[in-house]
Amino acid sequence: MKRLLLGFVAGFFATLFFHQPVLWLLHIAGATPRGPYNMKAVAPLHVPSVISLAFWGGVWGIIMIAALSKVPKGAAYYLIAAVFGAILPTLASWFISAPMHGQPAAVPKPPMMLIGFAVNAAWGLGTAILYRAMARK
Fold first, then answer.
1. Residues 90-105: pLDDT tens digits?
2. How far apart are CA 15 and CA 117, in angstroms?
3. Which of 38, 63, 72, 73 would suit a FRET pair with 49, their CA atoms being 20 to 30 Å apart?
4. Burial of 82 (0-12, 13-18, 19+ CB in 10 A)
């Protein structure tokens, strides 16, 4: 239970401290029009978009930490976490989340695909780093 709670907390804060800063860097580089820390309220709870995103980052954190429970500690752990983050949440966003929000399933263009992979890889790596730091305490 503690591992799952720490996974949620790590995923939540990795969204704020890893995912969003990478999005900010890509935004100021002109790679994406979408800026970080979107404060626009979203349904159904009308919380800021970035908080909703962080919540889902926490949910994905639980999933990722559970999936990585058998991966040995070390560099491979962090690499697998980054790859997990780059692929699974990105695909879920394109093919599950988009249709649930009334948008067509994504047919992403290569530059936009790279943005999704980059910000979510940063999230995965950040989640692993934060989780390991909190689990030691």
1. 999 888 887 787 777 7
2. 14
3. 63
4. buried
Spatial CA neighbour of 100 closest among 52, 54, 47:
52
**In this structure, what is the dihedral angle of CA atoms 117, 121, 123, 126, given to the nearest 10 degrees?**
-170
pTM above 0.90, yes or no: yes
Q: Are 11 and 62 in contact (CB under 8 A)?
A: yes
Number of Cβ within 10 Å of residue 45's Cβ equals 9
Where along the chain do its domains lie?
A: 2-136
DSSP labels, 101-135: TTPPPP---HHHHHHHHHHHHHHHHHHHHHHHHHH
**End-to-end alpha carbon distance in the chain:** 16
